[in-house]
Amino acid sequence: MQKISDLLQKFPRWAALGAGALSAYGFAPWGLWPLTLVCFALLIHLIAKAQNAKRAFMLGWLFGVGHFAFGNQWIAVAFTFQAAMPIWLGYIAVLGLALYLAVYPALATCGAWLLTNPPRLWGGGARAARDGGGSAANAASDFMPPPPTSAVPLIFAFAGLWIITEWLRSWVFTGYAWNPLSVIMVSMPYVAQTASVIGTYGLSAIVILTVGGVYQFAALRTRTVSGERTKGRWTSYSVGGVLLCILVATAVIGRFSLWGGDDRSAAAQVQAVTVTVVQPNISQSDKYALGYDAVNFAKLAMNSRPLPDQGPRLILWPEAAIPDYLEEGYPYRYYQGQPGDSAAGSRARLTTLMGDNDVLVTGANRLVIEKGQLVAARNSASVMDAYGQLLGHYDKAHLVPYGEYLPLPWLLQRLGLARLVPGSLDFWPGPGPQTMTVSVNNKPVKIGLQICYEMVFSGEVVDRKNRPDFIFNPSNDAWFGDIGPPQHLAQARLRAMEEGLPVVRATPTGISAIIDADGLVVKSLHLGIDGRIDAQLPRAKAPTLFAQFGNIIPLVFAGLLILLALLPLAHRRGSR
Questions:
Q1: Based on the number of CB atoms within 10 Å of its own CB, is 127 exposed (0-12), middle (13-18) or buried (19 or more)?
Q2: Does residue 82 sit in helix, strand or coil?
Q3: Whole-model pTM?
């Protein structure tokens, strides 16, 4: 192990960059999560050996560049489905995004180093040198790490700060919460179920604590075998015991979460409700091609009509499934070309696919008209009954920058940039999570709606004042090749675990799925096929702890971890 450590110290920057790149392969579709754990152990080792905070920041940033560049490579595929910008610009966009996102792990590594390697005398050191009380050399030494004894405080600090930086990443500059570290654990239900208590970001900290615990005990074992005396060894073991207790508690919480009871009031409402999830398999390259509107609708129709002896259903279509405007009140020119040249004509065509008392939820854009002028559009999901009556709409609130709107258009348009979705009209955001109640088979069903990318934002997918029976996530993952869709599905599974709610996804090319309240995929349609899923809605569970308190819990957990990191320091200071 010492030889490996010496080698890493010769090339720490390349090691950080390479480890970050390899760590991305723990996410779907590869699922090599042990590799991710090894890469994070390497990062912890590099931080522990860093000579100063600047070096710790740089190592964390390089790790983040590799991690996000390889983890977000699917974004480049989206540039192949538009003609406004050169395709190669997609790879520049991925790299540019990675350079920014890498700041967040860098803040975590730098902060962890500073918390565990502060000036030796609080208020002394560099301040004393400025005041003539010490040499600059002595002041500089106050910021040097102590002899390598224990990385446990560093591990606690790093885990706590990772929670905070992942949370910050979810909302700073509108947020980009894609692929939190915890999503690699989705395939391990006993571990991932901890998200029902401490949320996605708290679960990310558990991953780091696990990695750090193994790393620390391996390091102590190596020193013991080599005969090296370790100062503060029993303190390290004590704090390590706290770490072990946290990990055991994680397993217990996960186990009991899987045994959690159903929400009986919700179950009584939805247990007899059948859903039909439709996947037409229209690729993004064909979606806007001449004549493909008819092909698309034919596939939707083929997979939507009721089966023999099938009762009332919820029919669930993907995001932007049809180009028609279903809402009345727009100038006539916007209805031209759709059935009957009217909203009523389009709705009438949809009713031909529905049985008695069916309810259809479909992605369909809406327009914003002010003083007779078109000023914006909304990416919406519209709900309609079997008689052609619109029951309501949900407008997507968390829009995708560069996808559905172009930030700083006065600057970026001059640089030749455009948004990925065709057209020059910007989308306007809706008010946020909403619950819509519809009647299916004479039973009220509460639908929580989250369109596409909105589903990745932990703690922001449900109206907590009006808890739904399930979450419907219409999405268009056709933009993102073979890598983006399985990653999106994995994050939807985490939302199901967090909220204790079933999640249903409908996409044009896959992966459409029904996910139960434990985050397990009940039925799915794979990438690149057309078809339908007919099934009963899984039962909701009683509201989880996370569903009740949201991201307050992981942030409190972060504070506790940081306090644990500071305990050995306080002990050291008190013993002077």
A1: middle
A2: coil
A3: 0.87
Per-residue pLDDT of 435-475, as tens digits, reads 999 999 888 999 999 999 899 999 999 999 999 999 999 99
Tokens representing 493? 């599974």
Give the whole-angstrom CA distance, residue 553 versus residue 551. 5
C-alpha dihedral, 193 to 197 to 202 to 205, nearest 10°: -60
What is the distance between the alpha carbons of residues 350 and 250, in angstroms, rounded to a whole number? 48
The proportion of the chain whose per-residue pLDDT surpasses 70, expressed as a percent, equals 78
pLDDT band of 286, cuts 50, 70, 90? confident
Burial of 285 (0-12, 13-18, 19+ CB in 10 A): exposed
Helix (H) or strand (E) holding 393: strand 390-395
Minimum mean pLDDT among 234-243, 247-256, 373-382, 439-448: which range?
234-243
Q: Looking at per-residue confidence, does 432 or 419 come out higher? A: 432
3-state secondary structure 35-79: HHHHHHHHHHHHHHHCCCHHHHHHHHHHHHHHHHHHHCCCHHHHH
Distance of alpha carbon 520 from the chain centroid:
17
3-state secondary structure of 18: helix
Q: How far apart are CA 365 and CA 326, in angstroms?
A: 9
Size (the chain), residues = 576
Element at 354 (helix H, strand E):
none
- Picking from 523, 520, 507, the residue whose alpha carbon sits closest to that of residue 451 is 507
pLDDT of residue 351: 95
Name the strand (E) or helix (H) holding 12: helix 12-23
Distances (CA, A) of 108 to 152, 168, 180: 15, 11, 14
Whole-number Å distance between alpha carbons of 531 and 22 = 35
H/E/C letters for each residue in 494-536? HHHHHHCCCEEEECCCCCEEEECCCCCEEEEECCCCCEEEEEE
Nearest to 382 by CA among 360, 414, 409: 360
Backbone torsions φ then ψ of 249, nearest 5 degrees:
-60, -35
Beta carbons of 335 and 342 less than 8 angstroms apart: yes
Token pair belonging to 95: 């790299």
CB 153 within 8 A of CB 565: yes
Nearest-angstrom CA–CA distance, 322 and 361: 11
The residue behind tokens 């397993």 is 251
Instruction: Label residues 100-120 b or e (16+ Cβ within 10 Å = b).
Output: ebbbbbbbbbbbbbbbbbebb
Rounded distance between C-alpha atoms, residue 133 and residue 117, angstroms: 21
CA dist list (Å): 130 to 38, 209, 245, 466: 43, 39, 45, 59
